[in-house]
Amino acid sequence: MKRFLLPLVAVLALPVAAIEQPLLFGRESNITDTAEMLTTPEIAEVKNAEFYYKQGYKKSKSGNHQGAIEDFNKAVELNPNYGEAYYNRGVSKARLVNYLEAEADFSKAIELNPKFFQAYYNRGTMKEKIGNYQGAIPDFSKAIELNPKLFQAYYNRGVSKLRLVNYLEAEADFSKAIELNPNFFQAYYNRGVARYNLGNYRGAIVDSNKALSINPDSEEAYLNRGNAKDTLGNYRGAIADYNKALKINPDSEEAYSNRGIAKENLGDMKGACADWRKASSVGDKNAASWVENQC
Predict the structure, then answer these.
(1) Which DSSP string do the residues of 76-137 spell out, in sequence order?
(2) Residue 36 · residue 258 · CB < 8 Å
(3) Quick check: 211 and 218 in contact, CB under 8 A?
(4) What is the DSSP string of 18-80?
């Protein structure tokens, strides 16, 4: 009986304002320079807005996003043209999983500053979060146009293309992200996913190897490399990878189910049934039916 491996583990997407890239978290305000062009009462309002902005920025950096939002609200109330305040309010809303309102804040920041590449990047990330992959791609493309070195934008554009089953273009975006950041674990991992789906199983294994050299504790990379090996008929190699995945996560239904398939292909039905029983016990309904019918 022909069985199908459980699918490759879900693609890895970078979060909004990637923590490892502080530039995408927030920007210091240039509002004091603008104040010199305003009248005396306007200067007072702008300086008050800057005060609230700085307070909000400090709170967001410390993880107090609700408090930060309240301060950014006051900043934009006092100065409705304060693009950085809208932007960082959007970041805090995103951290609180309020993606739609965050998207609106990033849109306002873009309206006030059409060259605000971080806002395009984060708006694209919000669109990804709510499943609007087609809408996310133009935002990542605009961020790249404004900052061609922004490897995160290439990467997340690749994620959206991968979700839309555009594997070839996704592979190209992940390759560009790797060119800009050669130690980018997620990019190697997801390029391996794209290559697997393009039928380039050996290429998928190469990418998984590189991903694991960067992050040896990635259950997902072992699973995906195991799947590629299994597809190429290297069942013992696949079993070795599933074993490593299970050392990291002893309750991985994918590892038990797919290791059982590999064992079945080697004629070890006793071992296959043992794995499928374990997979069934952690929620795999397909494995449960295999146990019922063959074990």
Answers:
(1) HHH-TT-HHHHHHHHHHHHHTT-HHHHHHHHHHHHHH-TT-HHHHHHHHHHHHHTT-HHHHH
(2) no
(3) yes
(4) -TT-GGGT-----HHHHHTTS-HHHHHHHHHHHHHHHHHHHHHHTT-HHHHHHHHHHHHHH-T
Residue among 94, 58, 54 nearest 75 (CA):
54
**Tens-digit pLDDT profile for residues 13-48:** 443 332 223 234 444 433 333 333 434 444 455 568
Domain covering 1-181 in this structure, CATH number: 1.25.40.10
| Cβ neighbours for 294, distance < 8 A, ≥ 6 positions apart | 1, 269, 273
For residue range 164-188, list pLDDT tens digits in order: 999 999 999 999 999 999 999 999 9
Q: Looking at residue 106, what is its pLDDT?
A: 96
Residue 51: φ, ψ to 5° = -60, -50
Token pair listed for 119 = 């806002």
- Say if residue 32 is exposed, middle or buried (CB neighbours under 10 Å; 0-12, 13-18, 19+): exposed
**CA–CA separation, 59 and 48 (whole Å):** 17
For residue range 55-76, list pLDDT tens digits in order: 999 999 899 999 999 999 999 9
pLDDT of residue 256: 94
pTM: 0.85
